[in-house]
Monocopper oxidase-like protein SKU5 (Papaver atlanticum), 588 residues
Amino acid sequence: MAFFRDFLFSITISLFLTTLCYAGDPTVYLNWEVKYITVAPLGVKQQVIAINKEFPGPIVNVTTNNNVVANIVNGLDEPLLITWNGIQMRRNSWQDGVLGTNCPIPVNWNYTYNFQVKDQIGSFYYFPSTNFQSASGGYGGIIVNNRAVISLPFDEPYGDITMLIGDWYIRNHTSLRRSLNDGKHLGMPDGVLINGKGPYQYNSTFVPDGIDYATFKVEPGKTYRLRVHNVGISTSLNFRIQNHNLLLSETEGGYTVQQNYTNLDIHVGQSYSFLVTMDQNASSDYYIVASPRFVNETVWQRVTGVGILHYSNSKGKASGPLPLGPQDENDKTYSMNQARSIRWNVSASGARPNPQGSFKYGGINVTQVYVLKNKPPVTIKGKQRTTLNGISYVNPDTPLRLADEYKVKGVYTLDFPDKPLTGASRMASSVINGTYRGFMEVVLQNNDTKVQSYHLDGYAFFVVGMDYGEWTENSRGTYNKWDGVARSTIQVFPGAWTSILISLDNVGFWNLRTANLDSWYLGQETYIRIVNPEATNETELARPENSIFCGALKHKQQPYHVGPKSAATSYRSKLLLSFLTLIFAIIV
């Protein structure tokens, strides 16, 4: 009976699920159990969030236009959502995994995401989007490969390596969250992790004995593609590899003009691909370094991530001082110039055969302009909050997309201001009313004292300008209207602005947020609502049947849940039942 059941299940996988997904494209299946495990990345045992007992979680490896069916079991002690940072969820904001589109997965429940990686390539990552949980892990890399018919704009690398770097606290996310709720700052991180591991002991004063560190084994003379993601909380990191050049090739789904860097600043939420050739003599191993930026390096010296690049013919361990990064704690000009140097490769083909530059964004008329200004935290109704244009966003109990679907009134307002408000800041569920097929200019003005990264779900935007000072309409004269890189996360330096252009062709509710986790948690976000006035199914997929209901719609929720141990069995059983029903219908 077991053999017969598994045989039918294998047929189900190959035949039936095409009816659940987008017909004609292959499907990748993920079955994840999200639970706490105990590890000691910085030498102190602590609870982290793992996926299938892995910390960081498994790499999602897919190809352009693949469908992804991801069954997520919440084995934590609080509700959970997983968001897919940079995956555009074309026509399908239902699967975005943020509080504006989805009710959280309750404890001991499972939820199956079902989406297509439509017309995308590149390097992305996933993470838990609620309750400050990503401060305890739950993240992992996403690789979207080119289809075979689309050639890469570089020779096929010998290997592909994912590196997840980020600041890290020994306190878990619940403790950090409590500090923010109490109006306290998080303080200096305890370290920087590389792939969930602490630093190599390059200096016994800063790194104690017994720390497990990340080692990346390579072959001499070969070229590897390194996909580096800053999955941290709030710290910009400078990434470098001792004695090796980093040939930048892609960022968040956009192929870039290829140019060498000895180091690159990677801000919170950002992802980059480098081509690195192993062209050294391997007299010893080489340091891989991720060090904090724009801080007092004397004080922060222990907060440095150090991994090891190990050639197969290496003659010894790495030793000596770390390779130096930029020495400009109080001068961010170097970092801004570096960011400006990153350009779109307009002649390369991305997910489609036509060159990236065939979309001539510089010639499109702007239909909406929003100047979004953030500032240091303020006190609103006795609580420390962060704001955009004087509004601190409050997530309503009912997700915005569900409220629209069921015409629930009073959940949100479509009155987000297009420029900073005067007067006192306030808390509200205020949303930007975007125009379908419009072209929006968003100016991000950072009046805080630290670098802010901003991310937009559902889109890749064009980075057309950045500079210090206050943005004015005259600033448009400096815009790059030809090869500004297309990406989904961009930094805004303190006392500076960054301008982006967005082609609003993806219907749904899309989260525009700071990627700095502490500022996001305290309200520095909003949503852009895009509705096709013709309301056809061609521009948005229907609500998935397995939607979880909460808030004003909780009465619609069926009393169904799955314990962690039975999740895989339940998922297989439901698929098998659906397949048998289909076969029965055909026979009859």
Q: What stands out?
A: The mean pLDDT is 92. The longest strand covers residues 27-39. The longest helix spans residues 567-587.
